[in-house]
Design goal:
The complex is a heterodimer. Chain A is of the alpha+beta class. Chain A has two domains: 104 residues; 135 residues, 2-Layer Sandwich (Beta-Lactamase). Helix content of chain A is 60%, strand content 14%. In chain A, strands 3-2-1-6-5-4 form a six-stranded antiparallel sheet, with helices on both faces. In chain A, helix 1 runs antiparallel to helix 2, helix 1 packs parallel to helix 4 and helix 2 runs antiparallel to helix 4. Chain A is rod-shaped and about 180 Å long. Chain B is α/β, with parallel strands linked by helices. In chain B, 42% of the residues lie in helices and 20% in strands. Chain B has five helices and five strands. In chain B, strands 2-1-3-4-5 form a five-stranded parallel sheet, with helices on both faces. In chain B, strand 1, helix 1 and strand 2 form a beta-alpha-beta unit. The two termini of chain B are 12 Å apart. The chains are: A alpha+beta, B alpha/beta. At the A-B interface, helix 1 and helix 2 of A face helix 1 and helix 5 of B.
Chain lengths: 281, 125
């Protein structure tokens, strides 16, 4: 068995050997240090890279999550839009129904008001058995309910030859007596057909072209005429309810006046039961 | 629910009756009638009203004088007043409103219009 040559102690080694050894060691350490430095740098770079990749990964995950959330949100929006469209359609339906109900309600309210007006007019017309009070009630209907500004009420004269004015308002030049064959009043008296103007401004009419002319009847007999020459400024046309007032006046005014007159003639005596029986009651 | 008191001052019995019928459609509204301005002032002196509806052309005391008097009455100086009249001219309207009327409605009346104005002034639905 061979053994390595003995290493002489440092003090016995040649100086060149020591120098060479030191240089070698120094070089070795330098290289080691540089290598270590490079490794550390590389490690640092790798760490940095890893960190960058992790950040990138996190961002991408976030992006994916965000895209998913957006997709979900878009789906939700679509659903909500659909729901909104349904709700809007339901609201429109309800609004249409509500509007129809409102219209019906307004119409019913108006109808009730008209009926109340007719009831009041009818009640007031027959509330008295006094001729002047009855005529006053007719004037009230014309002024307060119809809105007549200028008008006259004519009754057939005793000799049945002319129409005599028994009440008027706002007519300075109105004739107190009319020929029953002439003018619009004469025509209405003869035919028994009411004349109601539906065009033009009712508030300013000439005497020869009144706004309305209504026959006054007792049963089938025409005994007078109401002529409305002009209406109030705020009443430019007749309303449906005015036609009902005209019918009321046409059918009831004359009988109310005549009844009041006969009652006055009878000294305000109510006829006895016998008189009713005589008439087949 | 609060009850409101309304005074109608109108010389025409027919129009008064019509207004009473119309205002019967307003819930919790108690209506008192007066047939001219003086009668109206008498009733205003004896009770408190939340609303006054008055005509203009009336015997004894007209509606404009009445408005003037009401606006100096400590009890009713702020009470809403609705004028209902045949006078449709703008100057009549201005005059009534200037004197302190709160609303001006011309005859012949449309009941729904009167009801709406009464509700508006009383603040009821």
């Amino acid at each position: 068995m061979s053994s390595a040559p003995p290493v002489p102690p440092p003090s016995e080694r040649p100086a060149s050997f020591n120098k060479e050894r030191d240089e070698f060691i120094q070089t070795f350490f330098h290289k080691g240090a540089r290598f270590t430095q490079e490794l550390l740098q590389e490690n640092e770079q790798l760490s940095q890279r890893l960190s960058d990749l992790e950040a990138e990964n996190a961002a991408m995950r976030l992006q994916i999550k965000s895209d998913q959330a957006i997709r979900e949100l878009l789906t939700k929006i679509a659903q909500l839009e659909e729901e909104k469209a349904k709700l809007l359609s339901a609201v429109r339906e309800v609004e249409a129904k509500s509007s129809a109900v409102e219209t019906t309600y307004s119409e019913v309210e108006m109808e009730l008001a008209n009926l109340a007006g007719l009831y009041v007019a009818s009640r007031q017309l027959h509330s008295t058995m006094n001729v002047s009070s009855t005529v006053k009630q007719i004037k009230e209907i014309l002024e307060q309910l119809v809105g007549a500004k200028a008008y006259a009420v004519y009754f057939l004269s005793d000799d049945a030859a002319s129409l005599v004015c028994i009440a008027s308002q706002g007519l300075d030049e109105q004739a107190s007596r009319l020929d029953q064959h002439l003018g619009p009043e004469g025509k209405v008296f003869r035919t028994g057909e009411a004349y109601i103007s539906e065009d033009g401004d009712l508030a300013s009419r000439p005497l020869s072209d009144p706004a309305a002319c209504i026959p006054l009847r007792i049963a089938d007999r025409v005994v007078g005429v109401i002529t409305i020459v002009a209406t109030l400024e705020q009443k430019p046309k007749f309303l449906p309810v005015d036609y009902e007032y005209f019918k009321l006046l046409s059918g009831h005014a004359a009988s109310a006046i005549v009844a009041a007159r006969l009652f006055a003639n009878a000294n305000h005596q109510v006829p006895g039961i016998e008189s009713f029986l005589e008439h087949g009651v | 629910m609060a009850e409101y008191a309304c005074l109608i001052i109108e010389d025409s019995p027919m129009m008064r009756q019509l207004l009473v019928f119309a205002l019967a459609r307003v819930r919790n509204l108690r209506v008192t009638e007066a047939d001219d301005g003086v009668d109206g002032l008498r009733k205003l002196a004896n009770a408190r009203f939340d609303l006054i509806v008055t005509d203009i052309n009336m015997p004894i005391m007209d509606g404009l004088k009445l408005i003037r008097r009401v606006r100096t009455d400590p009890v009713h100086k702020d009470t809403p007043i609705i004028v209902i009249t045949t006078e449709g001219a703008q100057e009549d309207r201005h005059r009534a409103l200037q004197l302190g009327a709160n609303a001006y409605i011309t005859k012949p009346i449309q009941a729904p219009q009167v009801i709406a104005k009464v509700k508006e002034l009383l603040g009821v639905s």
